[in-house]
Amino acid sequence: MTTELYFIYDSHCPWSYATTPLVNALQAAYPKMNVNLLHSAHYIGTDSAGEEQMAAAAKISGLKFGRDHIRYVNSPKNSIKTANLMAWIQAKQPEKQLITLNAIQRAHFIEGNPLDNKHDFNAIVEQCKLSPSNKIFKDELSMEAEYVLENIIEIQQVIGTTGFPVLVMTVDDNAIFIDHSLYLSNPQAVVGAVEKEIAAIK
Fold first, then answer.
1. Is the dihedral of CA 50, 51, 56, 57 positive or negative?
2. Region at 129 (left for phi over 0; alpha for psi -120 to 50; beta for the rest)
3. CA-CA to 46 of 20 to 30 Å: which in 23, 75, 138, 176?
4. Is 124 in contact with 43 (CB distance < 8 Å)?
5. Rg (CA), the chain
6. Strand bridging mode 3-9 / 166-171
7. Where do the H-state alpha helices sit in the chain?
8. How far apart are the C-alpha atoms of 40 and 153, rounded to whole Å?
9. Strand order in the sheet with 34-39
10. pTM for this one?
11. pLDDT in tens, 79-104
12. Phi-psi region of 37 (alpha: psi -120 to 50; beta: other; left: phi over 0)
């Protein structure tokens, strides 16, 4: 049985932050599963999810949002540099994708780090033992990040949605669309639901 997980997200989206615990739970349950984290680079410095969405995500998931994040919650967000970094990790150090995403979301949503310039990433790069080149931290999408966006479009065409976050698991030639909204308050429950889906396929 070959399993893969596809997570379409944006690092600066509170709903993506609330969905990452599901990805963590699935990775723990299926340690041999190949996890593909696909950053949608939705936020380009012109808008943000805003206070209402953050409050809704916090209420449903029970996750904490830090005081500094809350203070600037309505300020425009820019996730391009994060998208570049995550695309670079996917290409160069894929085993570090999930640990880095968790560190990035903690920095942004709990510590209030805007992740706007190269300096903002220093602690994460050090913590996760990464060695990205300086060109990763430019203001435009890298070739690797553009390639990720092409992959996202392909998946969106198959599942018929352009929204995010999105979780899709493939088991051999079968695809399981996971409705993340059902499990935000209890991420562990997603494992049982997926096990039932896999049993039905077999």
1. positive
2. left
3. 23
4. no
5. 16
6. antiparallel
7. 14-29, 50-61, 67-71, 80-92, 97-105, 122-127, 143-159, 189-201
8. 10
9. 34-39, 3-9, 166-171, 174-178
10. 0.95
11. 999 999 999 999 999 999 999 999 99
12. beta
Angstrom distance (rounded) from CA 10 to CA 42: 6
| 78, containing H or E segment | strand 77-78
The secondary structure of 138-189, three-state, reads CCCCCHHHHHHHHHHHHHHHHHCCCCCCEEEEEECCEEEEECHHHCCCCCCH
**Residue-wise pLDDT tens digits, 11-48:** 999 999 999 999 999 999 999 999 999 999 999 989 99
Q: Which of 43, 45, 142, 163 is nearest to 89 (CA)?
A: 142
Q: Phi and psi dihedrals of 188, rounded to 5? A: -65, -30
CA 46 – CA 90 distance, rounded (Å): 26
Q: Are strands 3-9 and 77-78 parallel, antiparallel or unpaired?
A: unpaired
Cβ 19 vs Cβ 184: under 8 Å: yes
Pairing mode of beta strands 44-47, 77-78: antiparallel
Cα separations (Å) of 23 from 73, 107, 133, 139, 141?
A: 24, 18, 27, 28, 25
